[in-house]
């Protein structure tokens, strides 16, 4: 899912410096799962902001709310009353959520409290790693289910680069596994090593014209 | 309509002296929700208890606060009183105005006492009833392993009316055959026959656990035997996976005359020896402090060798671990029979000279170097967890200690329990034990399981800790984090998965409630609002 | 709640230690308010922050000794959360030392009193 990380508090405080009454809004999907923007984090951020203001001797009133998905206008609709009651919104959702919120409530400034980073999965407790770069031209079928675009430091399509370190580590970043070693081993395990000899033509990185737009077939 | 709270103060027979109870009662009576304030001198004694039951009933109280001694002492008594008066026992909150107020401050502490009562009232107003429900449990127990400890616990369980499955990976039961129980002074001769004759004990050999799911009372185990897999349900699991020993490498040249403890017992039993060893050496306790079993083996074998061959016997040791039952006596016996014990700081050097094993060590007490030529040397052994324990640990998701044995050195767990309710350990797989303690552990485990499963059902708080299916986003955090493995993912609608906490396996710690990023878990009695209410009640001075 | 110290006490260690302090007649500041929890691992960052928002001068979280938590990881999680809370306070230019974690066994009432005194000293520093 989408992974985000919390912004430095100073950035958030600067954003909301002129405001005395704000809504701290969480999202119940991706950012909840990666521990950054769910109901729990909303409470903690709101409390921290109040403590900071209090120490300055200034006032801050915070409303708190978390919806299932901030990128759905219907789900944001329930916040209408709270939004009309505040001067600005601090959203802990990913960029999609922040922008949907901003679009629905055009009169109120909506500020991002997290940095949206990548599409990924959990690798350990509290640790998320990037898996997919949303390139729009997926060829995971030919790489044993491992994406070299994101997981190879050089983004090679016909790897490895020849600089792989001992132990199968990346030439650029010794902490990283060489993605092409991983791909080789996976294909070997599945008896599909012939794919390693296959030449992949340069990728069309504009397969998705940004901003992307997808129309699914009618329901 | 406001919830009706009754407050009972106790002055503990006059032991609480520095609180102005009149003033306290007056102030508390004014607080929102409080319909009644009472002062007693002995709430926990018979008459006090009866007065309390009557008051609760007569005044139709819906929540109760008791201000007096520590809840750790008397909470269960007051919970009983609530039940007797017709209230759910969870609708009680206590204010510790004795140990944590009156007894630790000088001067008048009325203000603090009232503060503590206010905190308890704020909390009690939010408390919800929690029911007790009975869950049916399986009365069958799985014992993994087939050594002496495994068979012993299986027999004890069968005597308690529980059917046991003894499961062994190898083709034969280990007790008495592979395992040198005799060397440790344990008589395993009749136990296999007993087990085979017992109708309540099922024996599965060449069988392995493939997967484990579920919780205490109903563990689901997939067992593979002879290429076929079967699914069985067990109320409890006993791990008796045993240990292994490894010779501490003495040096390659020493060859076949350097033997393990087990090999030495085989030599002892072999009546067709070419030549009886004239001199026997033992090495003990230099590499590993966990040497109770090796010590026992050494003493038993040394005495046996002395008796059978009359050989000269030398034991090179760093320490002789005699802290097990009967071992000090055994040590004395060995010395009295002429076994020589040589204390050294470091392990002696082992080599070969003239076809015999040469042992060079330094005798600490004599302050002299000692060179021994012997016919057989019993090498030092490390006491280690059985092969495959690590893999098994991952499969079961039960922790091992830093040495790889099952039991962590945690004082809060039963001596024989794991962090997962319903999974127990016995025998050598628990690490540095001795036969006396091992037998005590086996009885302990059998009793624990007997208590748990004999009735065929177990009463537990119903949904005291619960993940709200509406709020749960199935992030899996609580499932991964629960120290007792009490939570699993369960499908509630056609495609919605949510976390479900097992009432039987839950140990009510609240770690899940704290980590949940969606605030979906309600832990009755310790919900966020119940904790925050206490904080908010503290008076700003 | 000015000057008050809120102490979250786990019922397997600090709560009985505090009781024992009472039985032994040990003394500590009247400003202490104890909140009982089943495990230090129940205490979360929000409880600590809200205690400070409500005017507490300091917050203590007390749990079992390392390696002796009945719930295995409760005390280590509590420690991480206390450290995180300190970091949050420092981030907004407040004193991170007013929140602290202590480990003790249930039979260590002197350790309990020391923890209370230590945090009391920090919160009583002039200029706070």
Briefly, what is this?
Chain A is of the alpha/beta class.
**Kindly, what is the distance between the CA atoms of the first and last residues of chain A, rounded to a whole number of angstroms?**
24 Å
Q: What's the overall geometry of chain C?
A: globular
What's the total count of β strands of chain A? Answer: 7
Q: CATH architecture of chain C, please?
A: 3-Layer(aba) Sandwich
Radius of gyration of chain A: 22 Å
Mean pLDDT of chain A: 93
Q: Strands of the largest sheet of chain C, in order across it?
A: 2-1-3-4
- Major sheet size, sense and barrel closure of chain A: 4 strands, parallel
CATH topology of chain C: Rossmann fold
CATH superfamily of the largest domain in chain A: Response regulator
Number of helices of chain A: 8
Number of domains of chain A: 2
Describe the model.
Chain A is an alpha/beta fold and 219 residues long. Chain A folds into two domains: 2-118, Response regulator (Rossmann fold, 3-Layer(aba) Sandwich); 133-197, no CATH class. Chain A has helices spanning 9-15, 30-33, 39-56, 73-76, 80-84, 95-104, 148-151, 179-189; strands at residues 2-6, 21-27, 61-67, 88-91, 110-112, 114-124, 127-132. In chain A, the strands form two sheets. In chain A, strands 3-2-4-5 form a four-stranded parallel beta sheet, with helices on both faces. Chain A has a three-stranded antiparallel beta sheet with strand order 1-6-7. Chain A starts with a strand and ends in a 30-residue tail after the last helix. Helices cover 28% and strands 26% of the residues of chain B. Chain B has 14 helices and 28 strands. Chain C is built from four helices and four strands. Chain C has helices at residues 14-23, 45-53, 74-91, 109-123, and strands at residues 5-10, 32-37, 58-63, 99-103. In chain C, strands 2-1-3-4 form a four-stranded parallel beta sheet, with helices on both faces. In chain C, strand 1 (5-10), helix 1 and strand 2 (32-37) form a beta-alpha-beta unit. In chain C, helix 1 crosses helix 4. Chain C is globular, with a radius of gyration of 14 Å. The interface between A and C is medium-sized, with 14 and 13 residues.
Q: What brief labels describe this structure?
A:
heterotrimer, A: alpha/beta, Rossmann fold, 2 domains, 4-stranded parallel beta sheet, 3-stranded antiparallel beta sheet, 8 helices, B: 541 residues, FAD/NAD(P)-binding domain, 5-stranded parallel beta sheet, 14 helices, 28% helix, elongated
């Amino acid at each position: 899912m989408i992974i985000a990380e919390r912004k430095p508090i100073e950035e958030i405080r600067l954003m909301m410096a002129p405001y005395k009454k704000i809504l701290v809004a969480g999202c119940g999907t991706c950012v909840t799962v990666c521990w950054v923007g769910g109901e729990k984090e909303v409470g903690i951020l709101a409390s921290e902001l109040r403590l900071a203001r209090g120490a300055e001797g200034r006032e801050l009133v915070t409303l708190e709310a978390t919806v299932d998905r901030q990128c759905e206008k219907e789900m944001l609709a329930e916040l209408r009353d709270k939004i009309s009651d505040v001067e600005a919104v601090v959203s802990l959702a990913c960029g999609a959520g922040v922008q949907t919120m901003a679009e629905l409530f055009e009169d109120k400034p909506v500020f991002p409290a997290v940095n949206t980073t990548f599409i990924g999965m959990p690798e350990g407790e509290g640790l998320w790693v990037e898996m997919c770069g949303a390139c729009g031209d997926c060829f995971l079928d030919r790489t044993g289910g491992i994406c070299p675009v994101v997981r190879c430091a050089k983004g090679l399509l016909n790897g490895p680069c020849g600089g792989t370190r001992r132990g199968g580590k990346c030439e650029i970043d010794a902490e990283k596994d060489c993605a092409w070693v991983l791909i080789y081993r996976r294909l070997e395990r599945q008896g599909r090593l012939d794919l390693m000899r296959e030449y992949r033509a340069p990728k069309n990185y504009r397969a998705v014209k940004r901003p992307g737009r997808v129309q699914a077939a009618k329901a | 309509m406001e919830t009706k709270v009754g407050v009972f103060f106790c002055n503990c027979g006059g032991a609480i002296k520095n609180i102005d109870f009149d003033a306290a009662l007056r102030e508390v009576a004014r607080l929102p929700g409080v319909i009644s304030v009472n002062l007693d001198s002995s709430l926990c004694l018979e008459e006090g208890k009866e007065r309390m039951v009557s008051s609760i009933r007569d005044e139709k109280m819906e929540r109760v606060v008791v201000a007096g001694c520590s809840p750790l002492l008397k909470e269960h008594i007051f919970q009983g009183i609530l039940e007797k008066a017709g209230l759910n026992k969870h609708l009680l909150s206590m204010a510790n105005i004795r140990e944590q107020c009156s007894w630790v401050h000088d001067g008048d502490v009325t203000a603090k006492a009232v503060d503590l009562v206010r905190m308890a009232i704020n909390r009690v107003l939010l408390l919800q009833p929690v029911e007790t429900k009975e869950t049916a449990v399986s009365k069958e127990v799985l014992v993994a392993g087939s050594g002496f400890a495994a068979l012993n616990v299986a027999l004890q369980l069968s005597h308690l009316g529980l059917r046991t499955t003894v499961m062994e990976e190898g083709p034969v039961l280990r007790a008495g055959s592979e395992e040198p129980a005799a060397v440790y002074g344990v008589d395993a001769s009749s136990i296999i026959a007993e087990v085979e004759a017992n109708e309540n004990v099922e024996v599965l050999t060449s069988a392995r656990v493939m997967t484990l799911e579920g919780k205490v009372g109903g563990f689901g185990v997939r067992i593979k035997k002879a290429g076929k897999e079967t699914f069985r349900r067990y109320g409890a699991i006993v791990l008796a996976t045993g240990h292994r020993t490894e010779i501490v490498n003495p040096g390659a040249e020493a060859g076949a005359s350097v033997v393990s403890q087990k090999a030495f017992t085989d030599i002892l039993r072999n009546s067709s020896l070419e030549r009886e060893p004239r001199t026997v050496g033992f090495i003990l306790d230099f590499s590993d402090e966990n040497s109770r079993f090796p010590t026992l083996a050494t003493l038993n074998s040394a005495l046996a060798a002395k008796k059978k061959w009359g050989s000269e016997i030398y034991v090179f040791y760093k320490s002789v671990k005699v802290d097990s039952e009967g071992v000090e006596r055994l040590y004395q016996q060995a010395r009295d029979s002429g076994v020589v014990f040589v204390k050294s700081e470091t392990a002696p050097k082992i080599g070969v000279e003239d076809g015999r094993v040469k042992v060079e060590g330094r005798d600490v007490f004599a302050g002299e170097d000692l060179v021994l030529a012997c016919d057989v040397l019993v090498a030092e052994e490390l006491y280690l967890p059985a092969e495959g324990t690590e893999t098994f640990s991952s499969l079961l998701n039960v922790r091992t200690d830093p040495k790889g044995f099952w039991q962590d050195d945690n004082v809060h767990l039963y001596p024989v329990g794991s962090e997962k309710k319903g999974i127990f350990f016995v025998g050598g797989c628990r690490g540095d034990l001795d036969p006396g303690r091992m037998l005590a552990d086996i009885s302990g485990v059998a009793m624990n399981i007997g208590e748990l499963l004999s009735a065929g059902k177990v009463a537990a708080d119903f949904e005291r800790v619960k993940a709200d299916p509406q709020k749960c986003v199935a992030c899996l955090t609580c499932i991964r984090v629960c120290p007792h493995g009490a939570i699993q993912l369960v499908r509630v609608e056609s495609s919605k998965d949510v976390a479900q906490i097992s009432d039987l396996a839950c140990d009510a710690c609240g770690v899940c409630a704290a980590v949940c990023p969606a605030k979906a878990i309600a832990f009755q009695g310790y919900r966020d609002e119940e904790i925050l209410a206490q904080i908010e009640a503290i008076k700003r001075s | 709640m000015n000057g008050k110290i809120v102490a979250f006490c786990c019922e397997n260690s600090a709560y009985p230690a505090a009781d024992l302090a009472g039985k032994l007649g040990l003394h500590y500041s009247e400003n202490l308010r104890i909140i009982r929890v089943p495990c230090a691992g129940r205490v979360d960052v929000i409880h600590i922050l809200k205690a400070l928002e409500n005017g507490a001068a300091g917050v203590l979280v007390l749990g079992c000794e390392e390696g002796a938590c009945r719930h295995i990881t409760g005390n280590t999680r509590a420690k991480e959360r206390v450290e995180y809370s300190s970091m949050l306070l420092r981030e907004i230019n407040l004193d991170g030392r007013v929140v602290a974690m202590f480990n003790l066994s249930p039979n260590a009432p002197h350790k309990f009193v020391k923890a209370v005194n230590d945090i009391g000293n920090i919160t009583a520093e002039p200029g706070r």
